[in-house]
Amino acid sequence: MDLQITATARDCAGIARDSTGRVVFVEGALPGETVNVELVRVEKRWSRARIVKVLDPSPLRVPVSCIHRLAGCGGCDLLHVAPEYQLTMKASIVIEQLGRSDVAAPVPVLRTLEDDGGRTTVRSAVLNGKAGYRVGGSHEVVLPESCGAVDPAAEQLLLEGRYGEATEITIRVGSRTGERLVLVDGPATEVTVPDDVLVVSTDELDAGRRAWIHEEAAGRRWRISARSFFQNRPAGVDALVEVVGGMVDDLGANGPMVDAYAGIGIFAGTIGQGRDVHAVERGRDSLADARINLDADRVKIVGSAVENWKAVRASIVVADPAREGLGQRGVEVLTACDPELFVLVGCDPGSFARDAGLLAGAGLQLDRMTVVDLFPGTSHVETVGAFLPG
Predict the structure, then answer these.
(1) For 247-282, what is each residue's pLDDT tens digit?
(2) 28 and 132 assigned to the same domain
(3) pTM over 0.85
(4) Is the terminal CB of the chain with fewer CB neighbours within 10 Å at N or C?
(5) Residue 259 and residue 268: Cα distance in Å, rounded?
(6) Domain containing 39: what range?
(7) 75 domain-assigned
């Protein structure tokens, strides 16, 4: 069928309606385009489709330069959009989602990355001993000949490493330290990588082995264990710390701080310097790193899910939850800290908007926000919002 694309969904798919009025989400389609599509999934109220042919292209459409994306690689799903428009597109999605939650959206600041060498954490499937990327919506694997989206030190391991009978691997590199690690899901006995690379299997970690690398970001050095959460590139950490720190400084917040979903301690170890901080994190590996990375005299590290934590009084709350966001319980716990400033870092526009609505219901209003291009070339949207008592 032919469809007219009228809007963009939160996953950056185009939105259209068919002749019956049913909503159709079309991956890779842009507002204003007319496209010929083939349905790939049909539900009661909506469908998903893929483009067969773009009949009337948007002026923002550009040729996809990556042969692997053209072959079906599920990564870098915004390469058909002019690079200078991608971040604007992401910001428009956040604004639309906030509107759905009845939250007034301030004009967003758009933040690109500086000194970016590409992704430093790469999760890959293994096919015949070689690392590759999943085809979108499939278990098939594309074996790349190159990948400009990742750090060169990671790209070498992606292309040249041999991983035997492993089913999946995770490559982690310290772009600014030169340290490299490969986490192998499956046997690690037939792995062939350069001698500088630390190889560890998930079975070894489950049995108690520890393995980590170091990275430099936001002006300091961090220990990062094989299974700890760390942003996908040091330039992203630089940007997030700068944005969150700028909000704290500009809005004059001072005093004790809570770093919720603290991970290895990025915000506690930067914005929290010189403050008394409660860093709340439930991941065992991240907690171990936080104890190395943070000042034990000023930071109390709490091993707990935020939802189960007993709130303490704090002037500043910084929350960086996983994709599902804070939810009702997370908002209840963290607003009980009675903060002067609440900074929410969200990696999903729908979850961010829902949480913004919950925070508004708890008396906190969205004062300003920045959309950070943490994953250039992809539909991933990272939003930082500053909330003040209303």
Answers:
(1) 999 998 899 999 999 999 999 999 999 999 999 999
(2) no
(3) yes
(4) C
(5) 6
(6) 2-61
(7) no
